[in-house]
Design a protein that fits this description.
Layout lengths: L1 H27 L3 E5 L7 E2 L2 E5 L4 E7 L4 E5 L7 E3 L5 E5 L5 E6 L12 E7 L11 H4 L23 H4 L13 H6 L2 H10 L8 H13 L4 H14 L1 H4 L10 H11 L14 H4 L4 H10 L15 H12 L8
Helix pairs in contact: 5-6, 7-12, 11-12
Length: 327
């Protein structure tokens, strides 16, 4: 009798253990739910997730109010849109450890850029050792302004790289290197070209054409296309589709800036069509501002989101608001 009882207990416990294992496996395969609300009501919840290299991470994206999107920095994942009552499920697999930022590309409110979270990925794999940003290595002040010998930038025709190509053989070789490009603003190069003996016969507009040519030599048509995509997806809501600082939140940001009168608070979006503002900035300075953000001005940091190639593509596209490229 005792033997039968023990067998019954054994099989009962075994069945319970099997049920527990199956339940655990089933639960582990269920997607993790991420709820999204406009930034003012909480943003993404949870905003911190853990994952392991090589192991699928399934996410169920749920909107609690309006349409949102889920994008993942440093990845090829295209933004996934989801609406109230229409959840979306995605699966992510990471091939190396690190901290990955997820964010929204949908301008659902003024502070939509604050809707961010992180995925902490652990496990074996190559971990990149970051070096100081280029602007730090060059000693650039991100919040300072360059003073050019040119008191006012004014031209009848937009600087053209195609016209500037006619003087390519007269440009000092050093000015066509990538190191020179990243560390000098268009105004600085204009000043130096203006003094170059071989270019003394050119007028100011022709010199600006040469500057446009120098800038075009440091990008490609593919990079400009990618930069335009990145800009329209991530920047146009504030800076405007045409770069004039007139995006859908521009008026609200201007009103806040005027009311608070605080240089460290929300500011009106930069107008990239303002020649004097954009042309005083070195590419390395723009890179720094994109990586770091505007430190409370409303300009988000993108250092954990864009790849290095994407950042430079975006920078090249920003200058296209001033220069007419032939490619």
């Amino acid at each position: 009798m005792m033997t039968k009882t023990r067998r019954l207990i054994f099989w009962t416990l075994a069945c319970l253990a099997l049920i527990g294992i199956l339940a655990a496996v089933s639960f582990s395969r269920q997607p993790l739910s991420i709820h999204a609300r406009i930034a003012e009501d909480g943003g993404f919840m949870p905003a911190s997730i853990k994952a392991r290299v090589g192991e699928p991470l399934r996410l169920r994206l749920i909107s609690d109010d309006v349409e949102h999107s889920f994008a993942l920095g440093q990845s090829d994942l295209q933004p996934v849109t989801f609406k109230p009552g229409e959840p979306a499920e995605i699966e992510l697999i990471f091939d190396k450890p690190g901290t990955y930022t997820f964010y929204t590309t949908t301008p659902s409110s003024l502070n939509f850029w604050r809707m961010r979270g992180v995925i902490e990925v652990s496990g074996e794999g190559e971990t990149q050792i970051s070096e100081p940003p280029l602007y730090v290595r060059l000693g650039l002040d991100l919040d300072g302004e360059h003073e050019s010998e040119e008191e006012h930038v004014e031209w009848a025709n937009q600087p053209s790289a195609e016209r500037g190509a006619a003087f390519a053989n007269q440009i000092p070789a050093a000015m066509l290197t990538s190191n020179y490009y990243v560390s000098h603003s268009p105004m600085e190069i204009f000043d130096e070209l203006r003094r170059a003996p071989a270019l003394q016969s050119l007028n100011d507009e022709e010199i600006w054409d040469v500057v446009a040519y120098v800038w075009e030599q440091n990008t490609s048509s593919a990079a400009l296309v990618d930069g335009q995509r990145l800009y329209q997806t991530n920047c146009a809501a504030c800076h405007g589709k045409s770069g004039a600082g007139d995006g859908q939140f521009a008026d609200e940001m201007k009103a806040i800036a005027e009311k608070n009168n605080d240089e460290h608070g929300i500011q009106a979006p930069t107008d990239f069509t303002d020649a004097e503002h954009l042309l005083e900035a070195q590419p390395a300075k723009l890179q720094g501002l994109i990586l770091r953000g505007g430190m409370g001005t409303g300009m988000p940091m993108w250092g954990t989101i864009f790849t290095d190639e994407q950042t430079w593509a975006l920078i090249a596209y920003l200058y296209s608001f001033q220069f007419e490229y032939s490619q």
